[in-house]
Design brief:
The protein is α/β, with parallel strands linked by helices and about 425 residues long. The chain is built from 14 helices and 24 strands. It folds into two domains: about 150 residues, Enolpyruvate transferase domain (UDP-n-acetylglucosamine1-carboxyvinyl-transferase, Chain, Alpha-beta prism), CATH 3.65.10.10; about 210 residues, UDP-n-acetylglucosamine1-carboxyvinyl-transferase, Chain, CATH 3.65.10.10. The strands form six sheets. It has a four-stranded mixed sheet, covered by helices on one side. It has a four-stranded mixed sheet with strand order 2-15-17-16. Strands 4-5-3-14 form a four-stranded mixed sheet, with helices on one face. The termini are close together. The structure holds uridine-diphosphate-N-acetylglucosamine. It holds the Pfam family EPSP_synthase. It catalyses: phosphoenolpyruvate + UDP-N-acetyl-alpha-D-glucosamine = UDP-N-acetyl-3-O-(1-carboxyvinyl)-alpha-D-glucosamine + phosphate. This is UDP-N-acetylglucosamine 1-carboxyvinyltransferase.
Length: about 425
């Protein structure tokens, strides 16, 4: 197993280029199963999760060629509509083959993803939406069996749960509805940029989707979808992680290939904290000279502050003297990084779904353990600010979502390397 070794204290400076968005690429790859021909995706990040989705599509029945950041997916005329447990258990996003398989083949068997370290992650909304379209769903021996007699039927569906909208449930239902008979209205749809990117791709395949980006999506079903070419949007979470890296090291970094509009919530919070953020077309420049100020942050669905940047902003507030309160409204238990940050000298206390961050002047490097993807990024960020060396182990989590992060950070002047445990 690999670990990351970071020696803190270097100011980051220069330019870094963000890769394509993992959370866009994964459902779009699943959507390729809806087409009868080859689709070509560009700007695809070479990540462990993307490789897992490639394996899943091959198991189902598609020719998949991945070179550099270009991915060709050609579904076979005969597919096996099964997503097995060994793949779904390593990557929850596998569940987004459910909608396309059901719509295209009339049946699907997908293992239940179960929970994960950031908390319970049910798929009841995915199933509710597909049932509303006429699917019969059964759960047996840990697998979801979905089937339909004839075509799915368009329907008005309210897709809300206890925590508001769901990104992948919206994606699954939207994909299934593209080939349904009649019109589907998804109310309380997720409005994340990755949902918009998926809808744009589906429209290029011949789907008729309107309203994506709002909470009401209208899908007029069509008979058939073809292949399409598409470039994946930049990863706003990777961009946000580099922005926090600039702020935490008192650096000056230009983050290229990003969409500043997708980062408004983070930009607002960084500016409140006293960080300078300058937007340009396709890039942001983040620099800090003076002291930081504590801020309160609540993770919410888009356009609110993203839960996938909650751990990273907490690392920044942990080294900002004063009290900051960070509240998680999407995954109330997503605080595995707290105890590891505290091993480095941070003073963070949990109070229900909030973390009270008592920011300190200095933290020190320590051996720490990554528990999930974004928590790992927070530990690397803290390592950049800590005195001495931080060893972040179990970085296979990091490799699920960040492409060559140690190379990108060292090109900005960080003292960081990958090593064997
Ligand atoms: C996606 C992202 C993930 C991000 C999350 C929230 C991908 C591959 N992953 O995950 O990185 O953290 O959005 O922005 O795109 N829920 C239910 N029932 C359901 C589905 C969800 O109760 O059927 C709850 C979840 O437990 C959570 C909330 O809804 O509390 C939002 O989750 P959701 O938007 O579905 O997350 P994902 O789409 O799985």
């Amino acid at each position: 197993m690999d670990k990351i070794v970071v020696k803190g204290g270097k100011k980051l400076s220069g330019t870094v280029r963000v890769s394509g968005a993992k959370n866009s690429a994964l459902p779009i790859m699943a959507a390729c199963l809806l087409g009868s021909e080859k689709s070509v995706l560009e700007g695809v990040p070479n990540l462990r999760d993307v490789q897992t989705m490639c394996r899943l599509l091959r198991v189902i029945g598609a020719r998949v060629i991945f070179e550099n950041d270009r991915l060709e997916i050609t579904p076979f005329s005969k597919m096996k509509p099964v997503a097995p447990y060994h793949l779904v258990s390593t990557m929850r996003a596998s569940v987004c083959v459910l909608g396309p398989l059901l719509a295209r083949l009339g049946s699907a068997q997908v293992s239940l993803p179960g929970g994960c370290v950031i908390g319970a992650r049910p798929i009841d909304l995915h199933l509710k939406g597909l049932q509303a379209l006429g699917a019969q769903i059964q759960i047996s021996h840990g697998d979801v069996y979905a089937g339909t007699k004839g075509k799915l039927q368009g329907k008005e569906i309210y897709l809300g749960g206890a925590f508001g909208s769901s990104v992948l449930a919206t994606a699954n239902v939207m994909m299934a509805a593209t080939l349904a008979h009649g019109v589907t209205l998804i109310e309380n749809a997720a409005s994340e940029p990755e949902v918009v990117d998926l809808a744009d791709f589906l429209n290029k395949m011949g789907a008729k989707i309107e309203g994506h980006g709002s909470h009401l999506i209208k899908i007029q079903g069509v008979r058939k979808l073809h292949g399409a070419n598409h470039t994946i949007i930049p990863d706003r979470i990777e961009a946000g992680t580099f922005m926090v890296a600039a702020a935490i090291t008192k650096g000056d970094v230009t983050v290229q290939n990003c969409e500043p509009e997708h980062l408004n919530a983070l930009i607002d919070k960084l500016q409140q904290a006293g960080v300078s953020v300058k937007r340009s077309k396709g890039s942001v420049r983040v620099s800090r000279k003076g002291r930081l100020k504590p801020i309160d942050v609540t993770a919410l669905p888009y356009p609110g502050f993203p839960t996938d940047l909650q751990a990273q902003i907490m690392a920044l507030m942990a080294v900002t003297p004063g009290i900051s309160v960070i509240t998680e409204k999407i995954y109330p238990d997503r605080f595995m990084h707290v105890s590891e940050l505290n091993r480095m000298g941070c003073r963070i206390f949990l109070e229900g779904s909030s973390a009270i961050v008592n920011g300190v002047q200095k933290i020190s490097g320590a051996p720490v353990m990554a528990s999930d993807l974004r928590a790992s990024a927070a530990l690397v960020l803290a390592g950049l600010a800590g005195e001495g060396e931080t060893h972040v182990s179990r970085i296979y989590h990091l490799d699920r979502g960040y492409e060559r992060i140690e190379e990108k950070l060292s090109s900005l002047g960080a003292d960081i390397r990958r090593a064997k445990e």
